[in-house]
Structures are given as C-alpha cells and as structure tokens.
Amino acid sequence: MTTNTHAKWSGLRLVRGLSFVPLLAALPRFLAAQGPVDTLRALDSAWARAYATHDTSLAMALFAEDLVVTSANGVRKTKAEELADVRPYPGLEMHYFRTTDVQVRRYEGVGVVVGLAEWEFSLGGQVRSLRRTYTAVYVRGGPLRWRMVSLHLGNAPATAARQ
C-alpha cells in the first residue's frame, strides 16, 4: 500500500464506540478510487477490523451470501455461522485482531489474499492468543465492490524462539 493510499485508509479507521454506518456508506467511493490490489488489501484490513470491533455491518457487506469458511480444524461454516463469531459475546473482550505477511493476487474478476492472522482475547478471565494462516478468495460484486466467497484458516508455523 502506498503512503498516500495508507494515509487515505488511515482516515477511515474506526474509533471504538462510533457507529460504522457513515463509514460503510463512504467505503465504496473510497474503494472505487483505488486499483484492485490496493482495494483487496484495504478489504483484508477491514475484515480483521470487523472481528476486532465486532462490526457485523461491515462483515455482512463483505461476506458473500454463499460464503464458506473452513476453520483450522476442518469445520466448515456458513455466512450466518461466521457472523456469529463476529458478534459481541458476553464476557468476551477482543484485545486485537490483525493480519501480517499479506500477499494479494488478482486474476480476472477474482482476488486471492493470503497472510497470517493473529488475535488475542479474554473470555472468562482467561487470555487466549491465536495465530492462523489464511487464504481468502474474493470475487467482484457486492456493496464493497468485492465480496469474500471463501476463507480457509490453517495452523500457523511455530514462531522462532526468542533470543
């Protein structure tokens, strides 16, 4: 992402507690001003933000009706089932959800984003940190100009020992 594009996207970042509706209305115009690779990169960041902030409005706009999510344990979920994971849950506090090592490939009408997703949350007084590799497949269309049709999560390799 170029510095200029990053600066534009930074201006759209959510502040906890603010309604996402005005941002969701502006997002398609913002995405239209970018090339497909930058748009897919921005949507990847928005996908992570949806989980971090429990933003079901964004997730519903991003996810295709026929979305298939395959978890690291091989369980498949529908859009409705994945939205349940985005929604707030009593006692759940998200500390962060972020993506790194993101690579974007674009083909005719299709975008593939691969990377590493890391998130941390507290539930019932227990803190959990998770790392998963992921491959997200997007196709043209939907309110955000691209929609996620498939998401596959896998176990991430162990991190190198700290020295």
Task: Describe what you observe in this structure.
The chain has 163 residues and is of the alpha+beta class. The protein has a single domain, classed as Nuclear Transport Factor 2, Chain: A, CATH 3.10.450. It is built from five helices and six strands; from the N terminus they run ααααββαββββ. A hairpin with a 2-residue loop joins β3 (92-107) and β4 (110-123). The radius of gyration is 16 Å and the shape is globular. The model is unreliable at 1-21 (pLDDT under 50).
Write the layout of secondary structure elements.
Blueprint (H helix, E strand, L loop, with lengths): L2 H8 L10 H12 L3 H17 L3 H7 E8 L5 E2 L1 H8 L5 E16 L2 E14 L2 E15 L5 E10 L8
Parallel strand pairs: 1-6
Antiparallel strand pairs: 1-2, 3-4, 4-5, 5-6
Residue ranges: pLDDT <50 for 5 or more in a row? Answer: 1-21
Strand order of the largest sheet: 2-1-6-5-4-3
Q: What is the beta-strand fraction?
A: 35-45%
Radius of gyration: 16 Å
Q: What's the CATH class label?
A: Alpha Beta
Compute the number of strand runs.
6
- Mass-distribution shape: globular
The mean pLDDT is: 84
Task: Please describe the biggest sheet, giving its number of strands, its sense, and whether it closes into a barrel.
Answer: 6 strands, mixed
Number of domains: 1
CATH architecture: Roll
Number of helices: 5
Order of helices and strands: HHHHEEHEEEE
CATH topology, what is it called?
A: Nuclear Transport Factor 2, Chain: A
- What structural class do the secondary elements suggest? alpha+beta
> In percent, how helical is the residue content?
25-40%
Q: What is the first-to-last residue Cα distance?
A: 31 Å
